[in-house]
Amino acid sequence: MAANAFGFNPAVWQAYREGRLGRSSWWPNVLSGLVVAIVAIPLALGFAIASGAKPEQGLFTAIVAGVLLLLLGFFRAGDLMRYVPSTVILGFTAGIAIIIWVGQWRYFLGLQSVPAGPMMTHLDYWLHLDRWSDGPTLLLGVCGLGLSMGMASPPLR
To answer: Under a CB-based contact definition with an 8 Å cutoff, are residues 115 and 91 in contact?
Structure first.
């Protein structure tokens, strides 16, 4: 089966031609799918709870995302990523990192709660740590951050 005039050549057809869909390939594929599900489902539940949604909404989102990824893989839509500039991917990833970082301030600083509002409200907590934070929790957070950054940082040249 060759690609048609529009260049449509799903990965499943290529895998079939290469003999990767035989009976011997099913068990590794099923095992890989189970491993992904074991990781993705609790992760989706956790993201839902952390963002204030219900766990079942996280599960539904994981199922929809899995179906979407299956369809995108079938139609080889991953090839479209070469048209997305690396700066867009870097900016998107950095934005997500900042959102996660700000969301963890409460736990890092040992605060009872962090009010919703403008960034200046959050900045007040940083400027007055002695008034708002729990000392042992803050110390543990700083030590953990220093340790993780020290272990993950490549040596400087």
So the answer is: no
